[in-house]
Amino acid sequence: MAFEFDRAVFDAKKFLAHDWQRQPRVFRRVFADFADPISADELAGIGLEPGVDSRLVSNADDQWQLTHGPIEDFSAVGDSHWSLLVQAVNEHFPPAQALLEPFRFIPDWRIDDLMVSYSTPGGGVGAHLDQYDVFIIQGQGQRRWQVGARGNYKVHTPHPELKQIEGFVADIDVVLNPGDMIYIPAGFPHAGESITECLNYSVGFRAPSQAEMLSALADHALDQELLATRYQDANDILDSDQPSWHLSDKQMAHFRQFIRSGLEDDQLLNTVIANMLSQNPRPPLLIWPQREVTESGLIRYLQQYATLQRAVGLRMITAKLDGQLTGLVQAQQWPLDESSQLLFETLVNTPLEISCQTLLPLLKSGSARQLMLDLLNEGFWFVGDDDA
C-alpha cells in the first residue's frame, strides 16, 4: 500500500515556506481515495502487545478517565465518548509505515512516530496544547476539529495524567472526512471530537528540549572522559574582604564562562547531536544472526535469502563529522566513501525490506561490504527465517 499527496492540494515547498511552525492549515482530500492501513480490531490487538504504549481515554458525564494498556475489555466504557490511542504504530504494524513516507520532505530525524487513534462518537481527549508539530490524517468516519491561536491558557487536570486547557476561541472549526488532513503547529490550542466511529493518524515530530540535548552532551562526555577541564580561579576573583559564604557576581560570571567554554568544541557538539538524532527513544527491535556473518562468507550468506528486513524502529541518518560524511545508526558511526554511501542511501530509503539481489551489486567495494557486514551482525538488518 502506497500513500501520496495530491500535489494540487499540498505543495511541500510552499507549505514549508508559509505554514510550517507558523499557522494551522486544513487540506481537503490530500489523500485521494484514502484506504485505512489498519482496522480498529488490528489497532486494539496491537495495544495488547507487551511494550506498546496505549491509552484508553473516556469521558462520561464530564468525568474523565485514562487507563494505560494493555486493554482487553472495552465493555465498561460503553458505545460512545471514548478513544483508544496507540503510539508508534508504524513500529509495530509494518503496513502503517507507508503513511510516513509522504512526510519525508521533513528530515527523517525530525519525524517521531505515527500515533493511531480509534474513537467512538463523542470521543476525544479534550482541549489541549502539544509541544510538537503534528499532521492528523482522517481515516474512516468523521471528526470535528477546533483550533485557536497561540496564547496563555489556564491548564487544568480532570485526571492526573490528562492536561487540558480552558477558554480558547476557535479560529478553525471543521469536520474532516476520509483523506482530509489538518496541520497543527506546536503551541496552538486544539480539540478534536469524533462525530462517528473513526480512525485518525497523527504524524508527530521530534522536538528535543535544551535540557535533553545538554543531558546527551553530559552523558557522552562522561562516557568518553571529555570536558574534563577542572575549574580554576581567575586572577583577582577571590576577595578576602568578601564574606566567605557569598558567591559574588564576578565569581558567578567566571563560572558561566567556564561552562560556556565547554560548549565551544563544534566537533564534539556535532557528534553528540548526530548520535542523539540517530537513536530512537524507543529501542529498536534488533534481530541478530544465529551465527556471526564473516567477511569471507557475506556474499554467500546473502545469496541464500530473498530479502533483508529492516529492524523495527531503526533510525538511519548521515551527517558530516569532522569533515567526513558519516552514516549513523543508533549512535554507531561508519565513515562513508562513494560506494558505502550508495549502499547506505539505498538502505535508508528502504522502509521495510529489500531484495538481496538488489543489494549484491552494491557490495563490490571493501567499504560497502564492511558496512553491510556490521549492519547484519549488529541486528540492524536481518534475513527472515535465519537458519544459515
TrEMBL record:
<dbReference type="GO" id="GO:0016706">
    <property type="term" value="F:2-oxoglutarate-dependent dioxygenase activity"/>
</dbReference>
<keyword id="KW-0689">Ribosomal protein</keyword>
<dbReference type="InterPro" id="IPR039994">
    <property type="entry name" value="NO66-like"/>
</dbReference>
<keyword id="KW-0687">Ribonucleoprotein</keyword>
<dbReference type="InterPro" id="IPR003347">
    <property type="entry name" value="JmjC_dom"/>
</dbReference>
<feature type="domain" description="JmjC">
    <location>
        <begin position="95"/>
        <end position="222"/>
    </location>
</feature>
<dbReference type="GO" id="GO:0005840">
    <property type="term" value="C:ribosome"/>
</dbReference>
<protein>
    <submittedName>
        <fullName>50S ribosomal protein L16 3-hydroxylase</fullName>
    </submittedName>
</protein>
<keyword id="KW-0408">Iron</keyword>
<keyword id="KW-0479">Metal-binding</keyword>
<dbReference type="GO" id="GO:0046872">
    <property type="term" value="F:metal ion binding"/>
</dbReference>
<dbReference type="Pfam" id="PF08007">
    <property type="entry name" value="JmjC_2"/>
</dbReference>
